[in-house]
Amino acid sequence: MGDISLFELKNIIGNKKLILSMQKSIAQKKNFHSYIIHGKKNSGKLFLANCFAKFILCQNEKKNNDACENCYSCHSFEEKNNPDVIYVKPTKTNFIGVDDIREQVKEKANIKPYVCEYKIFILEDADKMTVQAQNALLKILEEPPSFVIFFLLGDEKKNFLPTIVSRCAVLKTDLIDLGQIKNYLIENYREKDKNLIDVCCNYSGGNLGQALILLNDENFFALREKIIDFMISLKKNDLALAINFVREFEIQKENIDLIFDIIYFWYADLFFYCQTNDVLQLKNLDKIEQIKKTCVLCDAGILYKKLKSVEKAKIYLDYNVNFKLNLTGFLIDLFLD
Ligand SMILES: [Zn+2]
């Protein structure tokens, strides 16, 4: 494996615009004290924050526009014990609460940095903080000590209070070109099967972090096998099988997005192959034979309808519709061909 873990600006893939505006802000010390980095889950928000925090804290002159890797700050940052970077963590619930802001931010923000010029607070899932917690944080953002810098990370900018947003430089992560993700994975995971790398790229939706998680997740490949087998064996009116499926996957609730992605890409592949006979664009590149075989028995119109049902189910998912209800409704949709 390459230097994947090093938080260096040169190791950031894509996100050129974000890097440029960040570098400008740091060089000019403009909007310098609080940043929001928002974007899709696993799109690299924490990695970006770490790279910039390390860069800002580096104790040497930044000649090459990157952290030096030689100073105490750079070393301790990589070893996760730099005393001047604070990762604010939730202690009582799943997300940072008002007590966490009081104890981990307010009490520490007024204490000068120990070794570096600045003190940096990084808050993951800051968009999921309660209004109370955000308001407590706002008070600090309004008059931050000159040495304090905040990185607030979150999936959705709209979940931050407007008053918080107005105090921050707002940066959004980019989706990364799939070709770039593929090159990165091939370069850094030489031992992995090329077809599986392709599958992970295709499932990543342009989020490198997602591709990395999938590539290293045995459960993903096992889950995909199971679901595709089920989709192949699914026959009209076999309600018993469908109910078994729902039961089985209820224990995989936390993977529901992935389950629907797998179903979606399966039907997308079938539909695409049915229409074009082109294998190069398929998402499940390791399943070409099964796709060809299954397509013989399929009708493009019906596949299109199924694809639409999956899309609909995915939208309901975003609205937090009950897992069992959604999956059952979706399977009934599938049977109505
Ligand atoms: Zn350094």
**What is the H/E order?**
HEHHEHEHEHEHHHHHHHHH
Oligomeric assembly? single chain
> What is the β-strand count?
5
The 3D shape can be described as elongated
Largest sheet: 5 strands, parallel
Indicate the CATH architecture of the largest domain. Answer: 3-Layer(aba) Sandwich
Overall mean confidence score, pLDDT: 89
Distance between the termini: 48 Å
**Which residue ranges are poorly predicted, with pLDDT under 50 across at least 5 consecutive positions?**
none
Strand order of the largest sheet: 2-3-4-1-5
- Percent of residues in β-strands: 5-15%
Structural class: alpha/beta
Q: What ligands are attached or bound here?
A: zinc ion
- Going by CATH, the homologous superfamily of the largest domain would be P-loop containing nucleotide triphosphate hydrolases
Descriptive key words:
2 domains; Rossmann fold; 15 helices; Zinc Finger, Delta Prime, domain 3; 337 residues; 54% helix; alpha/beta
Write up what this structure looks like:
With 337 residues, the chain is α/β, with parallel strands linked by helices. The chain folds into two domains: 9-172, Rossmann fold (3-Layer(aba) Sandwich); 217-335, Up-down Bundle (Zinc Finger, Delta Prime, domain 3). It is built from 15 helices and five strands. The protein has a five-stranded parallel beta sheet with strand order 2-3-4-1-5, with helices on both faces. Strand 2, helix 4 and strand 3 form a beta-alpha-beta unit. Helix 4 (98-109) packs parallel to helix 5 (131-142) and helix 8 packs across helix 9 (208-215). The radius of gyration is 23 Å and the shape is elongated. The termini are far apart. The model has no long low-confidence stretch (mean pLDDT 89). Bound molecules: zinc ion.
